[in-house]
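ARCHIVE CARD
CATEGORY: sequence design from structure
SOURCE FIELD: tokenized fold
FIELD CONTENT:
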């Protein structure tokens, strides 16, 4: 049985989220990546690292406690280039290594990755040149 973080709502992660060993992309601040680069939106807001985006006000809390990842370099680069504050971020790529579960959520290419409490799969992510 997976040990999920205590801040996950009772119905989270969703039953249709699945393990994956696929490669995914994530916008990060650090090179090399740090665990903080993989905090959920909720954790980043609570730590004062960013504001809650207005669109997140209607988002399912289960998505907000997950970590956003993208299925392709094209999709994450399009996001980075279209949102001012994201333009300074770097793109990291790595395998989820079947750690936790993932599900397609929101817009093009966006997936939510629910990481177990003792997750270390973030260490497999490498910033792209």
């Amino acid at each position: 049985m997976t040990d999920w973080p205590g801040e996950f709502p009772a119905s989270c992660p969703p039953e249709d989220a699945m393990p994956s060993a696929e490669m995914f992309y994530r916008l990060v601040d650090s090179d090399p990546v740090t665990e903080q680069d993989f905090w959920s939106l909720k954790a980043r807001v609570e730590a004062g690292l960013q504001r809650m985006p207005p669109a997140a006000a209607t988002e399912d809390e289960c998505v907000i406690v997950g970590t956003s990842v993208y299925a392709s370099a094209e999709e994450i680069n399009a996001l980075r280039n279209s949102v001012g504050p994201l333009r300074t971020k770097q793109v990291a790529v790595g395998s989820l290594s079947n750690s936790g579960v993932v599900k397609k959520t929101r817009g093009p290419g966006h997936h939510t990755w629910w990481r177990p409490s003792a997750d270390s799969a973030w260490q497999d992510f490498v910033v792209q040149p």
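CARD ANNOTATION: The radius of gyration is 14 Å. The chain is about 15% helix and 20% strand.
SHELF: design records, drawer C
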